[in-house]
Amino acid sequence: MNVTIDRMECVSCGACWNTCPELFEQNPCDSLSQIVEHIRFCGDRAEGILQENDERCAREAVNLCPVQIITITFDESEKM
Ligand code: SF4
Known about the structure:
Blueprint: E1 2-5, H1 15-19, E2 24-26, E3 33-35, E4 40-41, E5 44-49, H2 55-64, E6 70-73
Bound molecules: iron/sulfur cluster (SF4).
């Protein structure tokens, strides 16, 4: 299960990092949301790998994001 942020559309409202600081943070240079370093997929600031216990908070951030740019995706094997 992965989470992605379409960073270029972020309006820096803070909803995601205030709700799930263990998953999201504000980039100090461009002020946009990014994935926290230790869960990044291949070092990508815009994509992270979620554990099962991260899903609830990530879904809350998806619902709170005012520009709807946070997405959770599942591998085919996880859909079974
Ligand atoms: S909730 Fe959405 S718009 Fe707000 S900081 Fe997070 S990614 Fe950006």
